[in-house]
Task: inverse folding
């Protein structure tokens, strides 16, 4: 029964959600929206489990003075400080997004620069990845290389200064062959997703169960 | 004649039957409104295919008026026990449009509509409709083409699953990335390094994450057999709890439950780049021998893949996010593109039932390709022969074909 | 031999040198290089035209679906569109699918309102000309709920004040009262907006996306499900050119131009090294 009940719940819920898509009559019409709200509520409570998973190993590192325990202490300090800042904004300023609250200070002066820094790594990594990967080993690889160069030149003013047709070529590549290839990939992906969902609903595949 | 050949013979009639059914069921209602006879009128009707909260009011006045000439529409409500409420003004309505959909109504009330038109020539004229209660429909007829598609899709999958169960051998082409999974785990074992399985930043509701969890069980079992540490940094608490159970059972199946450590499957953060930074830190410190990047990724994909490349790990990546595939292709040794990720669990297990579902999916893809080709042909001929006009045999045929696949709710310019 | 080794080494440049070159290619042009002529491409022109078609008093809903990571690319688009919207006397209603994106949107809104007042004498009042409804969790359910009645989810604005006290919200109930939606996103929320808001309710949408996500949206643009598309910092610069208000997008073009040229040069060098190694290895 330990295995059968979850599979039965998945089957009934899956078929029910598919059926409600076609039935406007109450209570089926807004069932999709309600299910999404329930999912948000469950996810919120699951965050408690996540916090335990995050903090427990770091507490153990500190207590047992394992290698790198100082970094664990920093993590717990950061977590606690942000929690206090959020509470101050929520309780004193009545909104964690209040402009003069502590939380927004932490967000604007610590989180924003850190997130921006991480995102900016992409610029460096894309250069090294392009240098390493864009080799004209085969005809197809050469096509990829040439189209990448044309798109890069067409996107920026310096490309247009070199030759006025680069932006038009770039626009054509983005609008036609790129879109056509992406449509083909997306059709395959959505069919695959539908087939995977069907296998899960019918209980043929049970990744959530083990 | 083999079962496969019999199947292939059935495809064209199935597709034709589907098209005919869709066309027949999508034909407009034969009960059209009576043509106007010069007299003004107002009618109220239940809005079709809805949840019973709207009525459609139509009227006919003078079509010669300018487009911005308005009248006042009032709503009279009678409660379920016969009590009438004061008339509510819905607002000015453009008279030439001739239609208004009143929403947020109740099936337990009766509604009557009054249209007040004021002109210098005829003074104030009032039109009053019959009373009516909105009704909810049990089936949205506009979605019948979607329902038929779901039925045919499901039938194809079930058909091939049954074929597979009957012992039919089904061919699946080789997928290099999946063939390399065992080698990757073996390589990590030889180097004495852990294996990282990164399920991405998706939620447990994302199909890519579920596909990643399916693969995780098989790879974790292999790692358990080799006694190689298997680590799963997670971005979502629900994914983490599920992954912990999956890995725990995989270790038990391999006969090594003693090797399982819950803190190997950890929640880092649900911030995208915080997660990327955390995983990168783990990679740089622990130098895994094999990294599997399977799941739902966004912009952090290149950061993860490049770092893995830098430390010399063998990397197998797979995602359904087409925008991230170029980064994985550039930085990883093997990449599973789109549906190859979904097929991975079936491929690794080689269970006939799972392989059957992949073949069913391929059949539907073949049907889609035929439909696309037919659509392209009809629309091209229609566009060329019609020369921009929508009249003529081919433009009308192309429009009829396009309407078969129309989804309700509008969309586009 | 040394020359041969050098030529072979072209294909094996240390990634730290590449990182340094990228850093210089981004930093130096910010101070010394001119922007050059920016020609708006067709999807950006379509987005501009979609806003331009709105009449004074029409409602533009702005959804801030990005956070700090994508702010450098999307903030210039937002500010350029807000300039255009306020100059056309459109009503702006701001919301978002990311809680931490809304403060960034509000900062841009305040900046544009102040700039218009100080530089052009155009005064816009909160609650009359624009409003920030704040964030509500739910994502898809929020998009669906707005289609029925916005007050089902948004009874107060981002400062917890009841929205019914603001004149701007008098006639706004659902998508029927919204002329155009602008979605500024760094992720997959644009798929949801197109599928639900445009697919079910027929409301027109223009999208401002990061350069990574923009290629995904061309399928929607070609199918007519999007009325316009602004992609990346280059798209932001193009939109600023159309509006006539140079901002962060335009300022970023020299750095982007030279970093693109650098990557092309690196690719050529890498291929030269590859072919020399292959040729010499074959000999």
Result:
């Amino acid at each position: 029964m330990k295995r059968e009940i979850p599979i039965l719940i998945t089957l009934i819920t899956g078929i029910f959600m598919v059926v409600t898509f076609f039935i406007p009559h109450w209570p089926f019409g807004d069932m999709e929206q309600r299910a999404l709200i329930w999912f948000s509520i469950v996810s919120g409570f699951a965050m408690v489990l996540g916090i335990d998973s995050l903090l427990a190993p770091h507490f153990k590192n500190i207590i047992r003075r394992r290698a790198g325990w100082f970094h664990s202490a920093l993590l717990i300090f950061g977590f606690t400080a942000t929690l206090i800042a959020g509470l101050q904004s929520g309780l004193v300023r009545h909104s964690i997004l209040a402009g003069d609250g502590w939380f927004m200070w932490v967000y604007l002066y610590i989180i924003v620069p850190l997130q921006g820094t991480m995102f900016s790594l992409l610029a460096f990594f894309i250069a090294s990845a392009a240098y390493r990967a864009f080799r004209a080993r085969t005809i197809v690889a050469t096509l990829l290389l040439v189209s990448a160069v044309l798109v890069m030149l067409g996107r920026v003013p310096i490309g247009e200064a070199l030759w006025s047709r680069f932006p038009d070529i770039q626009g054509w590549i983005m609008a036609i062959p790129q879109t056509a290839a992406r449509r083909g990939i997306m059709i395959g992906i959505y069919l695959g997703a539908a087939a995977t969902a069907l296998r899960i609903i019918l209980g043929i595949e049970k990744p959530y169960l083990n | 004649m083999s079962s496969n050949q019999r199947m292939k013979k059935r495809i064209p009639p199935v597709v034709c039957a589907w098209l005919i059914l869709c066309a027949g069921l999508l034909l407009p209602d034969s009960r059209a409104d009576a043509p106007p006879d010069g007299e003004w009128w107002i009618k109220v009707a239940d809005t079709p295919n809805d949840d019973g909260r709207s009525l459609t009011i139509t009227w006919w006045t003078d079509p010669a008026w300018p487009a911005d000439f308005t009248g006042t529409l009032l709503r009279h409500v009678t409660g379920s026990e016969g009590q009438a409420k004061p008339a509510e003004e819905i607002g000015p309505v453009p008279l030439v449009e001739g239609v208004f959909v009143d929403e947020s109504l109740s099936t337990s009330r009766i509604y009557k509509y009054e249209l007040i038109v004021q002109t210098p020539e005829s003074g104030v004229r009032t039109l009053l409709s019959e009373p009516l209660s909105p009704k909810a429909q049990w089936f949205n007829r506009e979605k019948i083409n979607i329902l038929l598609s779901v039925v045919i899709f499901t039938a194809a999958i079930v058909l091939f699953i049954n074929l597979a169960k009957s012992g039919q051998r089904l061919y699946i082409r080789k997928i290099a990335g999946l063939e390399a999974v065992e080698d990757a785990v073996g390589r990590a074992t030889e180097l004495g390094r852990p294996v990282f399985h990164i399920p991405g930043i998706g939620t447990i509701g994302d199909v890519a994450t579920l596909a990643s969890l399916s693969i995780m069980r098989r790879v974790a079992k292999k790692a358990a057999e080799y006694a190689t540490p298997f680590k799963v940094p997670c971005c979502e608490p629900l994914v983490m709890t599920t992954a912990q159970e999956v890995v725990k059972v995989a270790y038990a199946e391999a006969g090594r439950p003693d090797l399982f450590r819950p803190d190997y499957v950890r929640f880092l953060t649900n911030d995208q780049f915080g997660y990327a930074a955390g995983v990168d830190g783990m990679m740089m410190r622990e130098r895994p021998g094999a990294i599997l990047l399977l799941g739902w990724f966004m912009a952090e994909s290149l950061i993860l893949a490049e770092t893995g490349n830098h430390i010399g790990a063998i990397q197998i990546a797979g995602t359904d996010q087409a925008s991230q595939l170029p980064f994985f292709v550039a930085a990883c040794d093997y990449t599973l593109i789109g549906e190859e990720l979904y097929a991975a669990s079936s491929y690794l297990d080689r269970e006939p039932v799972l392989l059957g579902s992949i073949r069913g999916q391929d059949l539907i893809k073949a049907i889609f390709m035929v439909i696309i080709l037919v659509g392209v042909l009809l629309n091209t001929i229609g566009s060329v022969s019609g020369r921009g006009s929508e009249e003529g045999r081919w433009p009308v045929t192309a429009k009829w074909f396009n309407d078969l696949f129309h989804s309700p709710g509008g969309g586009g310019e | 031999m040394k020359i041969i080794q050098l030529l072979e080494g072209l294909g094996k440049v240390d990634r730290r040198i590449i990182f340094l070159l990228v850093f210089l290619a981004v930093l130096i042009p910010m101070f010394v290089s001119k922007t050059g002529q920016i020609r708006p491409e067709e999807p950006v022109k379509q987005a501009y035209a979609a806003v331009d078609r709105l009449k004074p008093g029409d409602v533009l809903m702005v959804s801030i679906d990005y956070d700090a990571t994508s702010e450098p690319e999307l903030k210039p688009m937002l500010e350029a569109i807000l300039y255009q919207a306020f100059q056309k006397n459109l009503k702006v209603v701001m919301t978002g699918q990311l809680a931490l994106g809304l403060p960034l949107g509000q900062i841009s809104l305040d900046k544009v309102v102040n700039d218009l007042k100080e530089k052009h004498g155009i005064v816009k009042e909160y609650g009359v000309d624009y409003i920030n409804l704040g964030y509500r969790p739910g994502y898809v359910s929020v998009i669906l709920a707005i289609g029925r009645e916005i007050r089902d989810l948004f009874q107060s604005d981002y400062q917890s004040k009841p929205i019914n006290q603001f004149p701007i919200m008098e006639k706004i109930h659902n998508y029927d009262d919204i002329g155009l939606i602008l979605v500024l996103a760094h992720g997959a929320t644009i798929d949801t907006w197109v599928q639900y808001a445009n697919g079910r309710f027929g409301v027109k949408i223009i999208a401002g996306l990061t350069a990574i996500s923009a290629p995904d949206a061309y399928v929607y643009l070609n199918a007519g499900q999007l009325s316009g598309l602004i992609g990346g910092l280059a798209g932001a610069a193009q939109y600023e050119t159309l509006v006539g208000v140079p901002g962060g997008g335009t300022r970023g073009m020299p750095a982007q131009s030279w970093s693109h040229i650098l990557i092309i040069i690196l690719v050529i060098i890498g291929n030269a090294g590859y072919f020399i190694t292959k040729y010499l290895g074959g000999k």
